[in-house]
Amino acid sequence: MLTHRSLIGFCVLLFALLAANQSFAQKKTKVELIRANTIRSDVNLYNGARRLIGNVRFKQDSSIMECDSAHFYSDRNMFDAFGHVHLYKLNNKNIDVRADFLRHDGDQKIAHFRNNVVLRDSQIVLTTDSLDYDLQSDIGFYEHNGRIVDSLTVLTSLKGYYYHHQREVYFRKDVVIDHNSSEYQMFTDTIRYGLDTKIIDFFGPTEFYNDTNYMYARYGWYNTETELSMFKYDALFRNPNQTVTCDSMSFDRLNESGTAYSNVVAIDTVQQLVVKGNYVEIHKDPELLIVTDSAQMIYVAMGDSLYLHADTLKACRDTSGQFRTFSAYWHVRAYKSDLQLQTDSIFFSMADSIARFYGNPIFWVQGNQITTEYMEAYVKDNLLEKFMLYKTGMIIAPHDSIHYNQIKGAQMTGYLRNNDLYKVDVFKRAQTLYFPVDDNQIVGVNKGESTDLTIYLKNKAIKRLVYRSQPHSDIFPIENVSESDMRLGGFVWLENIQPKSPADIFTWPNIDAAEVNRRSAMPIPTGDTKKMRKQSKK
């Protein structure tokens, strides 16, 4: 299988072969000796080469090559140059190469530079000890360590390929990039650097480091001027507090903002929070997190985990910048071992530690079902301490499969201790229906009404009621009560849509919330109540 690493190697080789084919197609020209202070013929030199000393200059086509001294093999159309070697082109001032030694092959038009080689382009400075340069295609390559300096960026590698006309440099094997005096460093196997675009494309496993952050990916690009980047395939971002993994990630280093795509998992070890989704935006200023597409939040507390899903999750700072806020929008469902939830949207602020639930929330708390139009929950030490129901609320606690203790009112306040509901204050049109028990046997049905009342519970069962004003209560023998008479108006038992596992939070059940609210607003059927009173007196 052709990997990204082998693919880029193949492309580099193909590029070089195409350039070589162009070289062969061009007409051969002779190397001309333009000047030298002293010219000597030396039989001791190989093939009787002439020895040139002082201000030596050669010319081939538009290329000029100068040095302190040289051995010129005119019959072989080549020379060896020594000391202060300098190559430049008459028609291109951006090509400038210097070295201690040069062997030039005039037939192939290849210059072999050795020792203290410095290639200068308008954009970069390349230094190495060994550079071969094709004068026809203006392609240079080294295979024994090279270093390129470009503005604030230093790039080093074992091998490199310089393409002047394409304005690109390829680096291969043990590639290290140091930006702005180690502000960050990059380690990889193969990259392409655009001399004009200032963009680094990397191919293969790549690591980025700075003082606090670490990034990894197998493919991507980084713009050294704008400091925008894209990371693909097994992308990873990590700092001392957070870790983000995903299929791909774009990042704006100047603004410290990024977007992660597909299979995103963000872990906050300080907040003990995990966020998942297929689209995640992260911004530092203003501090903002947005998650969509299979968005999920997992919060770990007290050895248990809360799993929450919504169409959109959002976390940010409030307008004062002092406190964090959290929002979940549309189709919100949550699962915890002792608490489950379904609602339209949630808003939570650390300023007051109040969670606000909109759009007909439904709660299941240790067997109790709580429904309302709007709810506020007060959190203390990561535990639900109190909740308030507005615009008609109902609490249902099953005694068994057909008997349900019920509380209903225009407004309620519930109090919890260790997630255990132990007291409920009901205001305005308070109604109760519960089943007294004797020797573990249901002995009747108690229906009560009051303007306000307080209910005390233990082990999910009603233990005591305190009617505050205008109380009225009746107890009916259980044998005289039909099943329909054991329900307050608007009774709806929703166990069939209750999340039973973390996987259930992604399924939105088809429930008519408007119908639930209409039925919840229905009064107690007084006709049935009068009938039951007559039956109880017989």
Describe the secondary structure blueprint for this structure.
Elements: H1 4-25, E1 32-35, E2 38-41, E3 50-60, E4 63-73, E5 78-89, E6 92-105, E7 110-120, E8 125-134, E9 139-142, E10 146-150, E11 153-157, E12 159-163, E13 168-179, E14 184-194, E15 199-209, E16 214-223, E17 228-238, E18 242-252, E19 257-268, E20 273-283, E21 288-292, E22 296-301, E23 304-309, E24 312-317, E25 324-336, E26 339-349, E27 354-358, E28 362-365, E29 368-371, E30 374-380, E31 383-398, E32 404-417, E33 420-434, E34 437-438, E35 441-442, E36 444-458, E37 461-469, E38 472-477, H2 513-520, H3 526-537
Question: How is this structure best summarized?
Answer:
This protein has 538 residues and is mainly β. The protein has a domain at 367-538: Sandwich (lipopolysaccharide transport protein A fold), CATH 2.60.450.10.
Mean pLDDT: 85
Distance between the termini: 89 Å
Named at the architecture level, the CATH assignment of the domain at 367-538 is: Sandwich
Radius of gyration: 40 Å
CATH topology of the domain at 367-538: lipopolysaccharide transport protein A fold
Which spans of ≥5 residues are poorly predicted at pLDDT below 50? 1-25, 513-538
Could you give me the name of the CATH homologous superfamily of the domain at 367-538?
Lipopolysaccharide (LPS) transport protein A like domain
Helix content: under 10%
Q: What gross morphology would you assign?
A: rod-shaped
The amount of beta strand, in percent, is over 45%
CATH class label of the domain at 367-538: Mainly Beta
